[in-house]
Design goal:
201 residues; alpha/beta; Rossmann fold; 2 domains; four-stranded parallel sheet; 10 helices
């Protein structure tokens, strides 16, 4: 947009603890109410459209989209578009345990004609523990990076041709250079999509 220029951005977030109370209880309607409350505040601030960089809470997206006063971009759909453009056919999907076991990416990737794989239950649990005990607290350990790389390498051997880093914090640990597969950083993909949409408006 020019030197030192960018679209206007407003941010609202409730504490993660409030979201986790509902997520841990499987209460997606509760998650949706928090998302809608943020959406209302941002609409009053003048937002033309909305994004949510948290992959996991997109499981409540269907409860939010039709009730919101502003349109949304969906993070997994934007990742699927990027994967299509780069001609990836089978994605390894990493994120919180809830995300890896939920419908957010399967629904978006199936609609795009893309296959996907997730790690086994033991690996999902370990990755979830690393996210919540380490990454969200700004702790980035070499052994955790090695674990993620090992899982990604195994999924590459299973036929995956790219890996979705489907959690805001994972790219802070797993860089493109450290990954055995090309990475699809969901946060950055969503941010780029938002910039494109903002420039169009």
């Amino acid at each position: 947009m020019g030197r030192h220029d960018h679209p206007e951005v407003s941010l609202h977030s409730f504490p993660l603890a409030q979201y986790m109370k509902f997520i841990d209880g499987g209460d997606w309607a509760g998650v949706a109410e928090l998302m809608l409350a943020s959406a209302e505040k941002l609409a009053r601030a003048g937002a033309d459209f909305l994004i949510c960089p948290d992959n996991t809470i997109h499981q409540a997206f269907d409860l939010v989209e039709h009730r919101s006063g502003r349109p949304w971009l969906h993070i997994a759909r934007e990742v699927a578009k990027e994967a299509q453009q780069r001609e990836f056919r089978r994605l390894a999907v990493l994120g919180t345990r809830c995300l890896m076991e939920g419908p957010v990416y399967p629904d978006a990737l199936k609609a795009a004609g893309i296959e996907w794989r997730t790690p086994c239950a033991e690996e999902r649990e370990r990755m979830n523990q690393i996210i919540f005990d380490e990454l969200v607290n700004g702790v980035f350990l070499q052994r955790s990076l090695e674990y993620y790389a090992e899982v990604i390498r195994a999924m590459k051997n299973d036929g995956c041709d790219a890996v979705v880093l489907g959690c805001t914090e994972i790219p802070l640990l797993v860089t493109p250079e450290a990954s055995p597969l090309p990475v699809l950083d969901s946060t950055r993909i969503l941010a780029r999509a938002a910039v494109r949409k903002a420039v169009e408006i």
